[in-house]
Design goal:
The complex is a heterodimer.
Chain A: H1 32-50, H2 57-82, H3 90-108, H4 119-145, H5 150-169, H6 181-189, E1 191-192, E2 195-196, H7 197-215, H8 217-227, H9 229-234, H10 239-265, H11 276-286, H12 298-317, H13 322-348
Antiparallel strand pairs in A: 1-2
Helix pairs in contact in A: 1-12, 2-7, 2-8, 2-10, 2-11, 2-12, 3-4, 3-5, 3-10, 4-5, 4-10, 6-10, 7-8, 7-12, 8-10, 11-12, 11-13, 12-13
Chain B: E1 4-13, E2 16-26, E3 31-36, H1 42-49, E4 57-62, E5 65-66, H2 72-78, E6 80-83, H3 95-99, E7 106-109, E8 112-115, H4 117-130, H5 146-159, E9 164-168, H6 176-191, E10 195-199, H7 203-209, E11 212-217, E12 220-226, H8 232-240
Parallel strand pairs in B: 3-10, 3-11, 6-9, 9-10
Antiparallel strand pairs in B: 1-2, 1-4, 4-5, 7-8, 11-12
Helix pairs in contact in B: 5-6
The chains are: A mainly alpha, B alpha/beta.
Membrane topology (chain A): Multi-pass membrane protein
Transmembrane segments (chain A): 34-55, 67-86, 119-144, 151-169, 192-213, 244-266, 278-308, 315-339
InterPro entries (chain A): ABC_transp_permease (IPR001851)
Chain lengths: 349, 246
Amino acid sequence: MSELSPATGSETSGFSNVGRTRWWRRGFFASQTAYVAAALIAIMIVMSFLSSAFLSPGNLANVAKNFSFVGIVTLGVTLVIVTGGIDLSVGSTMALSAIICAIVMRTVSGTAFDSVPIAGMLVSLGAGLGVALLIGLANGLLIARIGLSPFVTTLGMLSIVRGLAYAVTEGRGQAPTGPDIDLFYGITDGNIAGVPVAIIYLLVLAIIIGIALHHTAFGRHVFALGGNEKAAALTGIAVERVKIAVYVLSALSAGFAGILMVGWLGSAPANLATGYELTIIAAAVIGGANLNGGIGGPAGAVIGALLIEVIRNGLVLAGINAYWQIVLVGAIIILAVLVDRLRTLRMAS
Amino acid sequence: MSLLVLQDVGKEFGAIRALSHVNLTIKPGEVVGLMGDNGAGKSTLVKIIAGNFPPSHGRILFENQEVHFTKPVDARSVGIEVVYQDLALADNLTAAANVFLGRELKRRVGPFSFLDHAAMNQRTADLFRELKSETRPDDVVRAMSGGQRQAVAIARTRLAKAKIILMDEPTAAISVRQVAEVLDLIRRLRDAGIAVILISHRMPDVFSVCERVIVMRRGTKVADKPIGGSSPEEVTALITGAKEAA
């Protein structure tokens, strides 16, 4: 710590080594999230000059929708990362939830459910989210109760769930149908005052998670787990319950985003969201979540997801080969953590 | 009245006798140094008092009531707190968050309950003032000195209304200046009527804050005398076995 200003002396020790760090080196302003946000704004300004299409309403709506799906799941995964865990199974969970939702909606249509308004849709949404809940519960129980490594457990779950998605559909895309299909498309792919509903869901969820993380005991315990799990256990925090909860929330966010994607695509293919787990974890890390645990938040998740999408969109507008986007996203991840590393080194010296 | 009494306490782990026939008494507000070489039985003794495991023989009385601890929570519930050597703090949280970790103050708003940041910061600031520590409630622990971390860990025990605090090597890994701070903290606890058992290897610390020193060697208590009636040389001899007992 540099930048120390003398505090008022204490009569017992007669010396003072406690100073206030300047405001711009504390809190949000000193976080990775803050400078990634600054970088995002800079990139958007540069792009608006380079391409007249960038700020067009059509393109902005496109960017907003694309990043919302990733952003929603990033919110959930960020919770897991803050506890010091990781969830690789979210991409597969998006697919299986989407598929189950579409299949159930098609199956119940034409049965007694049709006589009750929106019953068929509620059952199918419940089934899609229910599958996600079970996946999250399985992850959470294996990791918290039995003590398996989060990486290996969720890697296995990635494969199991993706396999199930192919097995259930035999590789064919599942289209949702039924009496409530228009309403379904409305709540998953509609617009409110010209704004895509997906981004509204994202922002509302981000605010809820922000409040939960910083203003409830649950959120405090999530951070404590990532900071020092042993200390958390010693103070009597229900470590297992908090861990299970974050994996369930992560899976639910994936299931929810998967269902939104069905509305967007009009179908749930078995390969839906393949490889998304990497983009999602990248978004969380770029947004400032620390894979060692203890640091991260919804603002970072949203900003990270948006940054990746803006850069991807910028490359498309610039006419650059899509394959290079993948290379660039990887480079940005490394750059973001590199800058953070340099910054902490500088502050420590 | 005595706060904590151990009567003929012994502990065996399989064929290994870690502790045998230990008798000791701690009075309220007393600061007692617990010394001994590695393997002398200090940690076993501390773990029995802290409730990590029960003794194989003997009785423990707390405020004249016999107690049987099987887990740390049992000991904590009667007022026995431990400040661990690694302090058991979450580095990424503020001092106030650590002090209140697991027992956060909340405000109900409809069906939800939210953290009461202002009340927790206020109460933590009061605790630090009581301890005369220059630690701010909203500072993050990661940026703190060893002495400040001790203050946070001790403030935790104060919040729990501890009657006796076991401190495991609190001055082992901190600078000379911070040692003075920690010893001051121990004096504040004594002034507040809280008993402290200071487990330490550092002779000057024990001789500057403790009223009494207990020396362990090979699982037995070999000395228990007022600090004024002893000397660092004698304690060293007792620890090493050059002197059998005192």
